[in-house]
Amino acid sequence: MFIWQEIKHTKLHIAQDIWNNMKKKITFKNKREYDKWKKKQNDISNETKRSFEDDILKMVLKQGSECIFGTDVLYCNKKYDVVGKNWYINKYYKNAFNFCYDRNPDVDLNFLKAYEVPNIYMDEVDILKSCGGCYIPGLQIIIIKKGKTKENFKNKLDQELGKYRLDCEMEDVFAHEIFHAVSHCSGRHTRKYSNIEEEFVYKSTIEWFKSKGYKDEDIIDKYFLPFTLHDVIQNSKEKVLLELMGEKYEEKKAVEDFIKNNAKVLVNALIEKAKQIGRVMINPENAQSVIEADRFSSLDFG
Prior knowledge:
Layout: H1 11-22, H2 31-60, E1 66-70, E2 80-83, E3 87-90, H3 94-103, E4 113-118, H4 119-122, E5 133-136, E6 141-146, H5 156-161, H6 170-185, H7 194-204, H8 206-211, H9 216-245, H10 252-261, H11 263-282, H12 287-293
Parallel strand pairs: 4-6
Antiparallel strand pairs: 1-3, 1-4, 2-3, 5-6
């Protein structure tokens, strides 16, 4: 996860969203008045960023958190190896690091630090509850969740979707987040097109999973689904409901009742579309048949 794409869920950023929504209705007497208003919005954004980064720094320093990669790792014992330019790394993560670095030798990762953080700390930050790890560019650190979050599902639909959470090891999450760091360092990442960023990272790690003996369907089921399923829910949920319900889809109450009583049917249909996207990401030759069958995704198949 490239974390700043998701920071909008914090309270302060919600305040900024309110300002942005109000922008259409506000008129200004002169440029000075507009500049003053614009500065206030920037202050809100900067305060959001500072507050979030402060919370992250406090988190990685708590008891139970552990630095697993960096130039100043204190625990340089048998548990650690030296890689690159005097970077120390926990041996468990060494293969994942080498996989990424070997493919991006011109990208200097000397700035980067990575931490294992117990899930009880990460779960205190709303945006981090549902992820296995993230890269925070403002701090130039990666955090990997140690342990699993206990899910509290609000309804049957969430319960069915909860069966398809991320199911891979911490070294796999580390490999994913390093590619986010590489993308950021090379200047190719973009906040505006978050799907393009995530698709780049997911595709970059396909070979990593295959080197571990994963077959295509294993990669899709254990790794791709959280991403592709989110894309389908965002862009195709209504279309799937229309396909399943027919004319009854026009009735709001009927839609609510269908989702409540047929959550498993709906999720199965969403999962199938999500798996189709995953197959195309692994093998672009599948793209044409999928597009002809259903133009459902916002992803770039090209």
